[in-house]
Amino acid sequence: MEHKVAAVWTRVSTGKQADNNGSLESQKRICDEYAASKGIRIKEYFGDTNESAQTEGKLYHNMIEKVAKDKEINVILVASYDRFIRTGPEGIMTKAYLKAKGIYVVSATQAIDPDSAAGTFMENMIPRYSTIRKQIRNTSGSCLHTKLRITSTSEVHL
Length: 158
Fold this sequence. Notes:
alpha/beta, 4-stranded parallel sheet, 6 helices, 18% strand, globular
């Protein structure tokens, strides 16, 4: 990709996230710094607070629709992949739709090659891991609570 032009997507679903260094401003700053270091021109910013990752919300749909129609934008830049969307199947299908149009979702904090088999695998695993992590967090009060830890060797420990 010779000329990289990005739309930045920021999302905060709770006030707690905004207070814990996950604010829209900090996500925007992370994306701006990454773009400057990689020669990516940012054309537009999208996102808002209280935009859930459990279902694709109105702001998210508007951004996808606008970016897909824009012939210049070829990158959706996010601070972290879990800021894009957390639900596994929808996120995977949306990324595939965008990739077919020549638009890549790029994380400023997670270096993944989206054109490699390993990169595609990781892109697909991140939203699934985030979904599982949230489900575990939501059931932490039950006796069935299990902690999930993924090691650097990609083993899953329950």
